[in-house]
Amino acid sequence: MSQNAIFARMKNARFSSFETTLSFALCVLWLFPQHVQSQHTLTNKHLCSKASHAGYTLSNKNAQIKRDFHVHYVILDFEADLADSTLSGTTTIAFTASNTLSQIELDAGENLRISAVFGQNQTPLPFTQNEGLLQIELNNELQANESDTVIIEHSARADADMFAPLSLGAHETGEVMWTLSQPFGAREWWPCNQDLTDKIDSIEMRITTADTLTGVSNGVLTQDEISGGQRTSVWKHNHPIPAYLVCLAVSNYALTEQKLVLRDEVLTIKNYLFPQSAKGFRRDIQNGAETFFWFDSLLIPYPYIDEKYGHAQMLRWGGMEHTTLSFMNNFNIELYTHELAHQWFGDLITCGSWSDIWLNEGFATFFQGLVFESFVTGEDLPDYWQIWKTLKKERILEYPDGSVYVEDTTNVNRIFDGRLSYDKGGFVLLMLREKLGHDVFFKAINNYLENSEFVNGYATTPDVIREFERACNCELNDFFDRWIYGEGYPIFETVYESTGGEIILEVEQKTSHASVPFFPDSFELAVWQNGKAERFKTALSTNRETLRFPFNGKIDSITHDPRSVFLAAWRAVEKSAIKSIKVYPNPASRQITVEPADFRQNITEIRLYDARGRVVRRFSINEPPPITLETTDFTRGIYTLQVDTETSSFTQKIILH
């Protein structure tokens, strides 16, 4: 089915007008039906792709310092020289002291060369730059609530590495320079206060470059002039913004504009694209824009409708959600939705520490999946929502440990761990929606987005817990202790039988990590008979329980969590099949796998006998089943396997060919 046909099914589509000023667009939107064939390419990569930039960070001692001033206004005046790989200019910072202040301390990394600092009236100010810090001596000591301004001259060099804080690379028809500041990279291209305690009230970005290029940034374009072979673009953003969301990109961009009517207000979407992307993306940009109506039906209005939303193409995989302007590699529907969700979760309200990054990335991942529940549906289409949940769940369960909450914020790869901060964080929200119900869940989210304590500021995990508890009038600390602060997941081992009009299940719950000894969460079972399933919802109150459900007839099988809404591993065996062994494949060529049907039993020894009854190999086993044995060095023929478990012994004929 074509992408346009799929998106024609979107709910409440109100795409009132679509105005194209130039018909150029981004890299091709790989819609989910194509990607599902390669799950490791799509769902096993976290879309924002920030972790690889760890080489440009450090054990950041200053990541969470609360400094004694508040930044009101910043003017960034840059000259971007792509031929020389440099970004140079001045940063003007207007601030107010919160305590007595004789010097101001900012973040300035090794890639940022500070050449001079001035106070008001161009008075030179003494400064030192060392170990990522810029310390400036002020002309006069400030008292609390007094204001001052510093002007800093600086330059930075762009790196060919796509994950550098300031990158430069070549595309098919030109070059592109762009920034990547999250989490600690802003200081490598402008002097700033990059903590997560203070947001800048407003910024102005002036970008001067060659007249064949376009410079883009946050906010609204207020000036765009060409003179003397140069082009100067001025952008103003009048909403609070943390340093890591300030952005700059320069290339030979072509512009595609879209205008949407949301709640009787017009939103302009500006897409700055490489010219060669013209044919592949006009349709994809329009499809992506349709998601605005979906967000508008679920959440408070788009926070920056008075300015814009937009995209700027760059070369790094994935995207980055700068306020009003996401940097994008492609228009994959998951990526588009993920970065758009960040405008609320990460931009309007920002995680109050990098330990709480799931409040940015987990929420964005939740919405990138939820789009399939609402949009890509139909009798003639696969269940992409179920596929997405299943793939995410499988990835999270690949390893037994890891908390969503980040303990080590000096490790950037850990902050942006795709399995934990993104996938598990998003899946926990899916479980919470299942627990509370859709309406209560979204009531809590919108209360959170409207809470003046957090809006245009910062929030932490306890803040979000309180909002959910207020909405449901229930206690959720235990839930978050298990799933956000704790590690691992439950493992259910079940032996079942049907007798006398009921199903009897002997269930033992183990946990993959000792930090959570027991998960009391409810879960769903599907009992299959003749291709149809009857579902039962239940929970355990202890680690070992016998569950009984009314059911008539023979059971074909039992599956756990049929809708993929609960993070747990599940192993089940029918009681009548316990006293057997599984050997596969059989016949075999290179290797065989041996597994007792009773998964509670460990294999202690395996012996291989030839057709004459002679032992040709004895295997001592020191690992839990299933056990894989290499068979390439055996003569082809018929053999007998004898498998000893902790309580039983089994034999099985095998053929090696």
Notes on the protein architecture:
- By secondary structure, the chain is of the alpha+beta class.
- The protein has four domains: 69-341, Immunoglobulin-like, CATH 2.60.40.1730; 354-481, Neutral Protease, domain 2 (Orthogonal Bundle); 490-577, Immunoglobulin-like (Sandwich); 581-656, Immunoglobulin-like, CATH 2.60.40.1930.
- 20% of the residues lie in helices and 36% in strands.
- The chain is built from 13 helices and 35 strands.
- The protein has a seven-stranded mixed sheet with strand order 4-7-2-1-10-13-12, with no helix packed on it. The chain has a five-stranded mixed sheet with strand order 15-16-17-19-18, covered by helices on one side.
- The longest helix has 19 residues, at 418-436.
Question: Topology of this structure?
Answer:
Layout: H1 3-7, H2 32-35, H3 39-42, E1 69-81, E2 86-97, E3 101-107, E4 112-118, E5 127-130, E6 133-142, E7 147-157, E8 166-171, E9 174-179, E10 202-210, E11 214-216, E12 220-227, E13 230-237, E14 249-251, E15 254-262, E16 265-273, H4 278-289, H5 291-298, E17 309-313, E18 319-320, E19 326-328, H6 333-341, E20 350-351, H7 358-374, H8 384-396, H9 412-415, H10 418-436, H11 438-450, E21 458-459, H12 461-472, H13 477-485, E22 490-499, E23 502-511, E24 523-529, E25 532-538, E26 544-550, E27 557-560, E28 569-574, E29 581-584, E30 591-596, E31 603-609, E32 615-620, E33 627-630, E34 637-645, E35 649-656
Parallel strand pairs: 1-10, 16-17, 17-19, 20-21, 22-28
Antiparallel strand pairs: 1-2, 2-7, 3-6, 4-7, 5-6, 8-9, 9-14, 10-13, 11-14, 12-13, 15-16, 18-19, 22-23, 23-26, 24-25, 24-27, 29-30, 30-33, 31-32, 31-34, 34-35
